Amino acid sequence: MNQFERIAFQASDGHACDLLRLRRDTPATKTPVLLVHGAGVRANIFNPPTKKNIVTMLAENGYDVWLENWRASIDLPPNEWDLDQVALNDHPAAVKKIVGVTGAKNIKAIIHCQGSTSFMISASLGLLPEVDLIISNAVSLHPVVPRYSRVKLKVFVPVVKLLFKYLNPQWGLSAPTWREKMLRWIVKGTHFEDDTLVGKFVSFTYGAGFPALWQMENIDAATRDWIQQEFAAVPLTFFDHMKKCVANGALVPFHADNRLPSDYVSGFKSTARIVLFAGELNHCFKAESQQRTFEHFDRLKPKYHGLYILKGYSHLDVFLGKNAHEDVFPLMLKELNNP
Fold first, then answer.
1. 282: number of CA atoms within 13 Å, CB side?
2. Coiled-coil segments, which residues (predicted)?
3. Parent domain of 116
4. Looking at beta carbons, which pairs linking 93-97 to residues 24 or more positions away fall under 8 Å?
């Protein structure tokens, strides 16, 4: 089992976050790699009980592995955040902390979902000059969602906000009040996939699939049970920001702010090479999301960036899949090792 050292850091606005650094028996021989989780989970999402997870494979290949718990992490107190706050404050501070501890001049990053969108905003603003390679999964600059997800963002979120500030898949295990019990009843009545009730709550909360974030055939029994502890509170403020970005077709600021441009696509300031991954069967963000972002970067610098569309994979099973160590991680390592 992988063991980590927990290293606290403060975001630029003072928010308390932390990093997990993999403990190694022998010193790393390669650069630090930062893994950035999505919304409503935590850094541990990259450490499932599969045969070989991404953390293990990075370590075996000599990398100094770091996992970021930014303000969306369920290891931290729940808070209402948007992508702009995270991009301005969390990721730049995390990168600076890693550089300060290790003395590395440059690092690489593997980013997922809303960790990816927010990290890409940081990169667009020129706040991550130390990062020379970004491997992004699921979505980055151009969020494209299924039609049902658009309906959920427009209709479901405003209704839910009348009763809740957060949604929490842990209510599948324990619903504390009548409101959470009512929502659990709705989940039971609308999701019939062969998943745990927490897993069904995850699908109810995110995306448009049954299930939404993984293909059940890609998840082994141990990981299916483990997932139940890896999802918790996500603020509805995030969904409001994503609704605005989806309607625009690309990432834009949530509120007017003189520190921010009108959009995050034009004027992208990072010089990092960008490699994009997308599950062909993703029911949270369609693979078209990453295709659009790749086409944008490829126009700017042809044949420099990369794109992989993964057959048989969805959203999070790119990292949690029982065969990801054979199908996915070698592709990521090839890009990390590409000079």
1. 26
2. none
3. 4-144+250-336
4. 93/9, 93/10, 93/11, 93/12, 93/17, 94/9, 94/17, 94/19, 94/34, 94/68, 94/70, 95/34, 95/128, 95/130, 95/131, 96/130, 97/7, 97/9, 97/19
Cβ-based neighbour number of residue 304 at 10 Å: 10
Q: Is 40 helix (H, G, I), strand (E, B) or coil?
A: coil
**What's the structural domain count of the chain?**
2
Task: Judge whether 243 lies within some domain.
Answer: no
Distance CA 87, CA 121 (A): 6
Residue 244 lies in a domain: no
What does the pLDDT read at residue 257? 87
Residue 113 falls in which region: left (phi positive, over 0), alpha (psi -120 to 50) or beta: left
Judge if 69 and 155 occupy the same domain: no
Biggest alpha carbon distance in the chain?
56
- CA pair distance 95, 117, nearest whole angstrom: 16
Within 10 angstroms of residue 13's Cβ, the number of other Cβ atoms is 11
Q: What is the mean pLDDT of the chain?
A: 97
The encoded tokens of residue 324 equal: 């990801």
Q: What is the pTM of this model?
A: 0.97
Residues 73 and 190 in one domain: no
Q: What stretch of H or E contains 37?
A: none
8 A C-beta contact, residue 171 and residue 234: no
Buried b (16+ CB within 10 A) or exposed e, 256-286: eeeebeebbbeebebebbbbbbbbebbbbbb
